[in-house]
Amino acid sequence: MNLSGHSDRRSRPDNGCDVNREKDEMKTCLVVDDSAVAREIARRIVEETGFRIIEAEHGEQALAACEDVGLIRLPSLDIV
Question: How many CA atoms lie within 13 A of 4 on its CB side?
């Protein structure tokens, strides 16, 4: 916690994603689904909009990807 009143550009929210990356970075979408077919469909649709796609089969992979990649602008999660 920073009590100095100044923002810490290196700080990360609890989800581990760095929200302070440069704005001109390629937009990234994290597709999380246990179904490879569902991930592939989502990949094809979202790639057409100019997003770079990162795939994860489950939550642990998704968290690791978020830590590696940084800012995820569009998460796509399997909630069923």
Answer: 4
